[in-house]
């Protein structure tokens, strides 16, 4: 596929993602649709990863990996992003129990994690010449700075941000959802699809990096 067509596909995909996020943020959903988005939407993420992996393994070439990653990442962004936007208001509206975690600790922790997340984006941009998700796939393997400590620092800090956010809300419902539902779905997406995609695009260099660097 020509480079111009790929750019148009990426921009169109981003527009759809942001449209879905805006609708999820602004709309008031019924209990049924809130459950469908918060729990059902996230449950679809491993399925998207599995189908993407199956398609990828049928013809494992760097060109196919780069192209297939666009719909896989954007579908994942829609499902996970919409679920997040609905989850925290929903879990506040339907609490299970209060978690008495001090906000004097959780709020500063959120600020630190936000800074670390920003640093991982900068790290990826400089070390890998890329951007999060499929907006700009890394042109080289990022193995320095934060990526020298673990293979997924961005995902680690993002998951911790949402877990600490649930603690800041002092919501057991939000905490259970973030740790037992959202986090495993994201990890499966990375394990099933993203790591295989990186193996195909970067070959032996990624396999060596993967062998010596922990997942988290």
**Spatial shape:** globular
Question: How many β strands by DSSP?
Answer: 0
CATH architecture: Up-down Bundle
CATH topology: Four Helix Bundle (Hemerythrin (Met), subunit A)
- CATH structural class: Mainly Alpha
SSE ordering: HHHHHHHH
Q: Which residue ranges are poorly predicted, with pLDDT under 50 across at least 5 consecutive positions?
A: none
Distinct helical segment count:
8
As a whole number of angstroms, the C-alpha radius of gyration is 18 Å
- Helical residue percent band: over 70%
**Largest sheet descriptor:** none
Tell me the fraction of residues in β-strands, as a range. under 5%
What is the CA–CA distance across the termini? 35 Å
Q: How many domains, in number, for the residues?
A: 1
Mean pLDDT: 93
Class by SSE composition: mainly alpha
In words, what does this structure look like?
With 216 residues, this protein is mostly helical. The chain has a single domain, classed as Up-down Bundle (Four Helix Bundle (Hemerythrin (Met), subunit A)), CATH 1.20.120. It is built from 8 helices and no strands. The longest helix is centred in the middle third of the chain and has 32 residues. The radius of gyration is 18 Å and the shape is globular.
């Amino acid at each position: 596929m020509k480079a111009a067509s790929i750019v148009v596909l990426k921009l169109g995909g981003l527009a759809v993602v942001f449209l879905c996020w805006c609708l999820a943020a602004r709309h008031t959903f019924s209990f049924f649709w809130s459950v469908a988005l918060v729990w059902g939407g996230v449950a679809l993420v491993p399925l998207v990863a599995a189908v993407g992996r199956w398609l990828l393994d049928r013809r494992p070439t760097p060109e196919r990996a780069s192209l297939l990653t666009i719909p896989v990442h954007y579908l994942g962004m829609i499902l996970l992003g919409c679920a997040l936007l609905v989850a925290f208001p929903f879990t506040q509206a339907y609490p299970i129990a209060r978690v008495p975690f001090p906000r004097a600790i959780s709020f500063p922790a959120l600020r630190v994690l936000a800074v670390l997340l920003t640093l991982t984006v900068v790290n990826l941009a400089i070390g890998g010449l890329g951007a999060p998700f499929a907006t700009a796939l890394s042109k080289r393997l990022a193995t320095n700075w934060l990526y020298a400590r673990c293979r997924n620092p961005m995902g680690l800090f993002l998951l911790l941000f949402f877990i600490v956010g649930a603690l800041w809300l002092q919501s057991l419902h939000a905490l259970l959802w973030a740790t037992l539902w959202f986090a495993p779905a994201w990890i499966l997406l990375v394990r099933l699809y993203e790591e295989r995609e990186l193996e195909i695009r970067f070959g032996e260099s990624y396999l060596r990096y993967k062998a010596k660097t922990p997942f988290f």
